[in-house]
Amino acid sequence: MLIVLSPAKSLDLDTPSTTQHATTPRFIDHAAELATHLKTLSPAQVGALMSISDQLAVLNVTRYADWHPDHGTARQAVMAFDGDVYTGLDARSLDAGALDWLQRRVRILSGMYGVLRPLDRMHPYRLEMGTRLANARGKDLYAFWGDHVTGALNADLAESGATAVVNLASEEYFKSVRPRLLDAPVITPVFEDWKGGKYKIVSFHAKRARGMMARYAAERAITDPQQLKDFDRDGYAFDEAASGGDKWLFRRRREV
């Protein structure tokens, strides 16, 4: 199986990496094209485009200005992203074998880089996949990336021998994938908590659970997605009766 994750808005650029292994993003030329375009935008334009504060707009304009194709000293993606998914994954505490599994079996969808392997080096950036950034290829980043993301996943499916894609990404990011063109079926785990008398998706917990599931798979070197049904971290359990088709429900009955 091949797992896909979303990136994170927040970054940790200070905590030391726990591995020296690093690779170069495959779509670095495409990222350079985006960076060149982003360098032309003012803080006010970035703020309006991304609906972010003036302070964040200035920070990211500075990042775009500093972006360059040489990634030799940049931080690995899985060591840089610092959101809820990556709290659940906690890559820094994984051993070398589990990190190697991540590198072979996990892909991070990215507005800036298209598809990242966990140990691909990346420069700090903020560019969500849903950003309506008009570009030479169309009105937004979905048009910019076109079939490239799907093509990259198909290449990785072929190389790894994986027979399924496990979608642990958000809806915004997975929209960059064209499932009908994938060379494997897609399985989408969904994490629900008992709240207010019913099961529902609680964003913070669901994001963290996605990272925990990726970690669970890495620690066990899982290749058969059926084994993910045994996932039991933090009180979640597979609910076969509520699941159907490619949608697998994992639930925990406790008030959150």
UniProtKB/TrEMBL annotation:
InterPro entries: YaaA. It holds the Pfam family H2O2_YaaD. Coiled coil: none annotated. One of its GO terms (biological process) is response to hydroperoxide. One of its GO terms (cellular component) is cytosol. Belongs to the UPF0246 family. This is UPF0246 protein HH212_23635.
